[in-house]
């Protein structure tokens, strides 16, 4: 086998890292598609209006993200100590799984939201350490490829448990199941998938880069955190990029998490919306891989800018959305750029940072991403609350994309100076 073929093959550690994206993307899929509809059903059956349900859901999502955003840098700093990354990952993995099982059997919409917050925190915290493990499993030259492969196979792999659950829900009468029971079984299938597909990561992915363990772990973590924050302020390229990322990823996450809530508000059929979002997954699979190939030729930053421009067009289209076929078009367009912009942002950042402090820097990366995920749903919630619908919140996302585009352009210029 020649050297070029050896370089093109994925290692066992790289494959195992990718499989965790397959594992957690199944949870993302139900958070995006099934859970908001399930929550809306619980809330409206208790007398909550459609607009109020949108506002509550957006606020709840924001609470979960805000809690984690405040913890992310501290957790990342601790995880950079020797052999700590996977240990902290395990704590939040258990939290995410437990929260998922608890919200599955929650008796009302209030308890459902409490347990959902726990599951969302667990899932999102795991992603800090999972993203940071990218540094441990591959090289800078392969990082764009591996990151895009992770998102690509995550999209397509997550469809397996989702389709099984969707069949149970759509044909629940044929299986002799109530709709509520079928939906709960679909949640259990997803959680089981999350557990099983995580096993290879535990077996084959190991922390390579670390900082020396200190006697006082917590105080040492805060010391390292202050040092990293100081470095971030001095590195203009990294600072502009991470603030720009905060802005544009806000819109990306908001469109992902609020799509079915917004569609339900304007009266679209729930089953059609779920099937349209399934289309997004299938479109995102080849497009994520393609984005990695294009980034190798054109550069990661150029591809990120193209994707931001595409998202601006998506927001304009989404503002006037009121028909089912328009939602299908929107789902297809999101699939074209969703995986690429996330994967290339992750790998571009991974190439900028010092490897021994990857968890800490990804903690900062995550806090900006999670505060974005906090702000976006809050904009939608405020729009629903004050104007009676969410369409103005969708339109306001354009401003964030434009600011993000401007700042990452400044980041690229600063890197060349």
CATH topology: Growth Hormone, Chain: A
Kindly report how far apart the N and C termini lie. Answer: 41 Å
Helix content: over 70%
Number of strand elements:
0
* Residue-averaged pLDDT: 81
How would the global form be characterised?
A: globular
- Report the total helices: 15
CATH architecture level-2 label: Up-down Bundle
Helix-strand pattern: HHHHHHHHHHHHHHH
Classified by CATH, the class is: Mainly Alpha
CA radius of gyration is 21 Å
Give start-end ranges of low-pLDDT stretches.
Answer: 1-7
Taking the sheet with the most strands, its summary is: none
Count of spatially separate domains: 1
Summing up helix and strand content along with how strands pair, one would put the structural category as mainly alpha
Search tags:
disordered N terminus; Growth Hormone, Chain: A
Architecture overview:
The longest helix has 31 residues, at 140-170. The protein is mainly alpha-helical and 417 residues long. The chain is built from 15 helices and no strands. Mean pLDDT is 81; it is low at 1-7. The protein is globular.
Offer a quick outline of the entry.
The protein is mainly α and 417 residues long. It contains 15 helices and no strands.
């Amino acid at each position: 086998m020649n050297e070029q073929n050896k370089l093109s093959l994925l290692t066992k550690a790289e494959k195992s890292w990718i499989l965790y994206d397959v594992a957690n993307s199944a949870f993302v899929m139900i958070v995006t598609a099934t859970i908001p509809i399930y929550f809306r059903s619980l809330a409206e059956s208790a007398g909550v209006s459609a607009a109020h349900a949108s506002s509550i859901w957006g606020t709840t999502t924001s609470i979960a993200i805000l809690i984690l955003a405040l913890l992310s840098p501290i957790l990342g700093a601790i995880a950079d100590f020797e052999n700590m990354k996977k240990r902290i990952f395990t704590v939040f993995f258990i939290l995410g799984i437990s929260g998922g099982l608890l919200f599955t059997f929650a008796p009302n919409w209030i308890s459902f939201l409490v347990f959902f917050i726990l599951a969302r925190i667990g899932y999102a915290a795991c992603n800090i350490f999972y993203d940071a493990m990218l540094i441990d499993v591959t090289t800078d030259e392969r990082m764009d490829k591996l990151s895009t492969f992770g998102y690509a196979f995550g999209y397509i792999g997550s469809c397996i448990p989702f389709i099984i659950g969707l069949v149970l829900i759509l044909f629940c009468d044929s299986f002799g199941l109530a709709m509520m029971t079928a939906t709960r079984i679909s949640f259990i299938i997803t959680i089981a998938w999350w557990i099983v597909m995580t096993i290879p990561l535990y077996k084959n992915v190991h922390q390579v880069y670390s900082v020396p363990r200190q006697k006082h772990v917590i105080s040492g973590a805060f010391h390292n955190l202050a040092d990293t924050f100081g470095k971030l302020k001095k590195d203009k390229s990294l600072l502009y990029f991470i603030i720009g990322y905060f802005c544009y990823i806000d819109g990306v996450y908001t469109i992902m998490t609020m799509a079915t809530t917004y569609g339900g508000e304007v009266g679209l059929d729930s089953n059609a919306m779920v099937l349209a979002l399934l289309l997004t997954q299938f479109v995102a699979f080849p497009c994520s891989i393609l984005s990695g190939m294009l980034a190798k030729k054109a550069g990661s930053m150029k591809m990120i800018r193209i994707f931001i421009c595409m998202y601006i067009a998506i927001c304009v289209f989404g503002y006037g959305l009121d028909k089912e076929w328009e939602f299908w078009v929107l789902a297809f367009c999101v699939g074209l750029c969703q995986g690429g912009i996330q994967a290339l942002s992750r790998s571009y950042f991974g190439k900028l940072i010092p490897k021994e402090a990857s968890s800490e820097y990804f903690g900062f990366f995550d806090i900006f991403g999670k505060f974005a995920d906090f702000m976006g749903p809050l904009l939608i919630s405020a729009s629903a609350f004050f104007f009676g619908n969410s369409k103005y919140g969708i339109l306001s996302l354009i401003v964030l994309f434009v600011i993000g585009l401007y700042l990452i352009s400044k980041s690229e210029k600063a890197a060349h100076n």
